[in-house]
Write a structure and sequence with these properties.
Length: 338
């Protein structure tokens, strides 16, 4: 990427006003319909800043030099879902490489189960031992270790990955997109050893990785990655623009979809914007992204654009109502009580 003359200036200082946060699968795992733009930035002069409590990480001056779109889908609607057991979520990365990233999402973790990458040697990456991306609950000073195994076909290359993860800071993260007062920083040391069946070991990669998260946002807000051989300049600096389906960043969901009552114990009324037609797909998913029900729009009341749907037989808990018509993609959080 072209380097810019205007680079990030990082300021870290302690303050006493930031509260510690806790991340859970319900607040932070991606769900089908989520859309994000990842902005790649100039790397010169960017440092990860301090660890510790009540830190201010100031990256306001980061400037995007390129961007990539990430769209999350139900795995069952994608090409290679059957190749990766336990997978229930896929991220379509909108690049010329046609990358697809497959995940297993549940109430305790988010883990990488496979990849499709068309980089001149088109093929699949299998993870017989999935790579744990996040292990919940995540709070300040929590830590875990992970060892995963990847296999690429048809290239017949193997990778053993040893990760050491610690949440080493909390505080306020300042980005070009805004200020996040309840951010947590996840610090990961990742060592990968690659080999092939025919030639044996051929490559080692050691990375020092920092990622910032906040409750309610389904992807990292900021990532900074260093090669441990050269820790002076990052290999990667990017921040995330949150998509319109993010439940905590959505500003116009009331105008697009209304749900009442909420919390609900039996019959729920779903009011769609007039621009949404009977061609819309309406689904109810659990917190891991599994589709619980496909809700028919044939019952739309033409005068009010309303749908009625019963949740009486659903276990109490948190669900998401997802509506898409090809142009609009939106989620609404629903709480079922009994």
């Amino acid at each position: 990427m072209k380097k810019l003359t205007l680079v990030a200036c990082l300021i870290s200082m302690s303050i006493g006003v930031s509260a510690q946060s806790t991340l859970t699968a319900a607040t932070n795992n991606p769900i089908p319909g989520d859309k994000f733009t990842i902005h790649d930035c100039s790397r010169t002069g960017v440092l990860p800043g301090s660890a510790g409590a009540a830190v201010i990480w100031n990256f306001r001056s980061l400037i995007s030099s390129a961007s990539i779109n990430y769209n999350f889908l139900n795995c069952t609607s994608t090409s290679y879902c059957d190749s990766f057991p336990t997978t229930n979520l896929m991220a379509q990365v909108a690049t010329s490489l046609a990358t697809q990233i497959y995940y297993h999402s549940n109430t305790s973790l988010l883990e990488l189960t496979g990849e499709y990458l068309n980089d001149g040697v088109a093929g699949l990456y299998y993870y017989p031992n999935p790579n744990v991306v996040l292990k919940y609950p995540i709070t300040y000073n929590s830590s875990y270790m992970d060892t995963s195994l990847s296999y690429r076909s048809p290239a017949s290359t193997y990778g053993i990955i040893h990760d050491s993860i610690k949440v080493d800071g909390y505080g306020t993260l300042i980005l070009p997109t805004g200020t996040y007062t309840n951010a947590l920083r996840v610090h990961r040391i990742s060592n990968r050893y690659d080999s092939t069946i025919t030639t044996g070991h051929y490559n080692d990669i050691s990375l020092d990785m920092y990622a910032w998260f906040a409750p309610g946002y389904h992807l990292s807000l900021l990532e900074i990655v260093f090669d441990l051989i050269d820790i002076t300049t990052p290999n990667l600096v990017n921040y995330t623009t949150l998509g319109t389906t993010e439940i905590n960043s959505l500003n116009n969901d009331v105008a697009t979809i209304e749900v009442n009552p909420n919390p609900v114990s039996d019959l729920i009324n779903i009011k769609l914007a007039p621009s949404i037609t009977k061609n819309a797909l309406v689904t109810l998913t659990d917190v891991t992204g599994n589709v619980i029900d496909n809700i028919s729009t044939e019952s739309i009341i033409s005068t009010s654009n309303n749908i009625q749907f019963s949740v009486a037989n659903k276990p109490a808990g948190l669900y998401f109502l997802h509506v898409t018509d090809g142009e609009i993609n939106i989620n609404k959080k629903i709480i079922v009580i009994h």
